[in-house]
Each structure stands twice: as C-alpha cells, then as structure tokens.
Amino acid sequence: MVPVLVAVIGGYLLGSVPVAVLVARAHGFDPRDVGDRNPGFWNMKERLGSRAAVPVFAGDTLKGTFAGLLALLASGAHTTGFAGLLGGGAHTTGFAAVTGASVTPVYAAVAGASVVPVYAAVAAAMIGHAWPVFAGFRGGRSILAFAGGVAVICPPAFLLAVALLIVTALLTRSFAIGARAGVFSVPILQLFFTPVAYVAATGALMCLIGLRFGQAALAGRHS
Questions:
Q1: How far apart are CA 129 and CA 96, in angstroms?
Q2: Which of 19, 45, 217, 213 is nearest to 128 (CA)?
Q3: Contact (CB, 8 A) for 156 and 96
Q4: What is the pLDDT of residue 101?
C-alpha cells in the first residue's frame, strides 16, 4: 500500500509541473490562451519553433519517466529482463526475473510487486499533467507523459515505438502522423514482452488521452 501511495502522490505532483506554461510565460504568453489552447509541445512548437519547444518536449516526457522510476524504486524494482545481471548480490526468480536493488538497468518490463505502483504512478502523472494543481487544473493531453511512462513500463516497446515514429515521419514527411503511429503501436508492441493484462492496463492509460481529446473537441464546439 505504501509504494502505491508514494507512486500516486509523487506521480501526480510530478505531472502537475506546468512545463509549457512556465516556458511560455518566459516568452510573454500563456499557451492555454493561444493556438489550440493546449499547454503541450505541439502548441509551443507552433508558437515558438522547434528549438524553443524542446524543454517542453523533454519536461513533459520526463514527468512519466520520473514517476515510473519513483514507483519502481519504491516497490523494490521488480522487473523481467532479457539481459544478464549487472553486479553481484542480485536476487532472481526464474529466468531473467530480477528483484531488489541490484536490478539490471536493461530489462523487458516491470513485473511482480512493481506493476501496480508503476502503472498507478504513470496514471497519476498523466492526470497531473491534464489537471495540474500548480496551474489551476488547466492542463494538456498527457501524450508525452504517457510516452515517458511507457519507457519505464516496457523499455523495448518504447524503443520500437520511437523507431516506428521516426520511420513513419520520414516516409510521410509528417511528425504528427509518425507520432500517432508510435503511440497507437505501443500496446501491440508490448504484447511481445508482457502478459495481456499489462497491455490492457496500458490501453487504459491511453483512454485518458482519448478523454482529453474528446474534452478539447467539445470545448472547441462551445467556444
């Protein structure tokens, strides 16, 4: 119970850091009042250009990553790996399953007692980004926070999704299309490394993104 509480509270507070709003205010505007009114990377890129929006891209992604890592450490760092152990004194349970402080940094997915805390932390980070306590509960769509969380939940699926994003973006000459391909491919790619139940949990996280897009569409109709 304690790891889950740490994960949820820490994840929400990390997600609530309004990176885009802070960067935008340094340039004299609020991203929630211009463009598509989304305080995220794409709106900032449209307003300031790609280079100036890099801190937003990195900051929003790291929300999910740091939240996941916090939960992983708080829950004892249980992972299922496909690489050899690094260092001594590790405790293993079956083939390539690692627990304890000596967990290898190269692993396939979270496992065991770390699954619920890590998923809870990533969900909390996404909720914090969508409804940030530090920015009047007016936040973004949590896509990058989700991506950063997947990097902890299932690193190889994350890397494959990034590769697909890059290839698709190059072929279509559209980062937006590449990003959609990368995000929507995550559950499919995760199937190669984790049980179906974990994939379903990832799908549940993606539902929050869909909710935020739906809310944005409704707000646009009434504006």
A1: 34
A2: 19
A3: no
A4: 42
Q: What are the pLDDT digits (tens) for 62-95?
A: 999 999 999 999 999 888 875 433 333 333 333 2
Q: What is the pLDDT of residues 108-126, one digit of tens each?
A: 889 889 999 999 999 999 9
**Which residues in the chain show pLDDT less than 50?**
83-104, 223
What tokens does 38 get? 């989304």
How many angstroms separate the CA atoms of 190 and 116, rounded? 17
For the CA atoms of the chain, what is the radius of gyration? 18
Contact 129, 62 (CB under 8 A): no
SS3 string, the chain, reads CHHHHHHHHHHHHHHCCCHHHHHHHHCCCCHHHCCCCCCCHHHHHHHHCHHHHHHHHHHHHHHHHHHHHHHHHHCCCCEECCCCCCCCCCEECCCCEEECCCCCCCCCEECHHHHHHHHHHHHHHHHHHHCCHHHCCCCCCCHHHHHHHHHHHCHHHHHHHHHHHHHHHHHHCCHHHHHHHHHHHHHHHHCCCCCHHHHHHHHHHHHHHHHHHHHHHHHHHHC
Q: What is the pLDDT of residue 161?
A: 97
Judge whether 124 and 86 are in contact, CB under 8 Å.
no
The residues, ordered by sequence, that sit 6+ positions from 97 with a Cβ below 8 Å of its Cβ are 78, 79, 80, 81, 111, 112
